[in-house]
Design a protein that fits this description.
heterodimer, A: 116 residues, mainly beta, 4-stranded antiparallel sheet, 0% helix, globular, B: 115 residues, 5-stranded antiparallel sheet, 60% strand
Chain lengths: 116, 115
């Protein structure tokens, strides 16, 4: 079974340019997460979807970041315009969305963004 | 709010030596605790988890961790290091909200294994 798929794996852009990342979760997983991992740090949650609804976006910088999960499957994370400080690895994860038990998250390989 | 502290951003051991990676947590409710491993240019992979029950948990690749409530610790150990264990290791605590669980990660410990 395929894992979480992310593209592109690497992206280099000039500051003030827009950029988008795509994530395809594991089939059947209802919950999808976007994390940002700065160099030398652990991942930090940006947004969590349950099906197509964003249920936790408190850490998403809404002035420049946006996300969508149309039809409750694939998701896109966008930054417009990008700033130097946005350079990081953007990780997508998915889980089944189970109630009453630990809901294991499966991570994709990430997209490494470099803003020049 | 929950938090995780990993002592030592870099740990170096010889092949065959004991691996000990330290993790302390802060949580106002009984925690779920995890160790993840991240190899270069790859996503995170779950090594082991503590949710309920036995406080000594065994994971993949010969790793284990013990939940010690009195010490608020969840240290990761492996009796004998292998070259393939070289990676970044993250401790995490879960905050259950709704139907999913929110993970808070530590800053990570890079494990180097030398000959």
């Amino acid at each position: 079974e395929a894992g979480v798929v992310q593209s592109p794996r690497y992206k280099i852009i000039e500051k003030k340019q827009p950029v988008a990342f795509w994530c395809n979760p594991i089939s059947g997983h209802n919950t999808l997460y976007w994390y940002r991992q700065n160099l030398g740090q652990g991942p930090e949650l940006l947004i969590r979807y349950e099906n197509e609804e964003a249920v936790d976006d408190s850490q998403l910088p809404k002035d420049r970041f946006s996300a969508e999960r149309l039809k409750g499957v694939d998701s896109t994370l966008k930054i417009q315009p990008a700033e130097l400080g946005d350079s990081a690895v953007y990780l997508c994860a998915s889980s089944m969305g189970l109630a009453g038990s630990w809901d294991e998250q499966f991570f994709g390989p990430g997209t490494r963004l470099t803003v020049l | 709010a929950q938090s995780v502290t990993q002592l030592g951003s870099h740990v170096s051991v010889s092949e065959g030596a004991l691996v000990l990676l330290r993790c302390n947590y802060s949580s106002s409710v009984p925690p779920y605790l995890f160790w993840y491993v991240q190899y270069p240019n790859q996503g995170l992979q779950l090594l082991l988890k503590y949710t309920t029950g036995a406080t000594l948990v065994k994971g993949i690749n010969g790793f284990e961790a013990e939940f010690k409530k009195s010490e608020t610790s969840f240290h990761l150990t492996k009796p004998s290091a292998h070259m393939s264990d070289a990676a970044e290791y993250f401790c995490a605590v879960a905050d259950r909200t709704g139907t999913a669980s929110k993970l808070t990660f530590g800053t990570g410990t890079r494990l180097q294994v030398t000959l």
